[in-house]
Amino acid sequence: MSKTGLKFKILDAVYLAIMILPIVFGIVLQVLTKPVAEGINITGARVYFTIPMPIQNFPITESQVNSLLVLIVILGFCLYITHGMTQHISLKRQHLAELIIEKVDGLVKENMGEYFKGFSPFIIAILALSAFSSLITLFGLYPPTSDINIVGGWAVLVFFLITYYKMKCGPVQYLKGLAEPVPLLAPINLISEFATPVSMAFRHYGNVLSGTVISVLLGSALAGLSSMVLGSLPGFLADIPLFQVGIPAVLSIYFDVFSGCLQAFIFAMLTMMYVSGGFPAEEYEKRKARKKIKNK
Amino acid sequence: MELAIGIILGCCALGAGLAMIAGIGPGIGEGNAVAKACEAIARQPESKGSVTTTMLMGCAIAETTGLYALVIAILLIFVAPNLLVNILVNTLKSL
Question: What is the pLDDT of residues A79-89, one digit of tens each?
Answer without folding.
Answer: 988 887 888 87
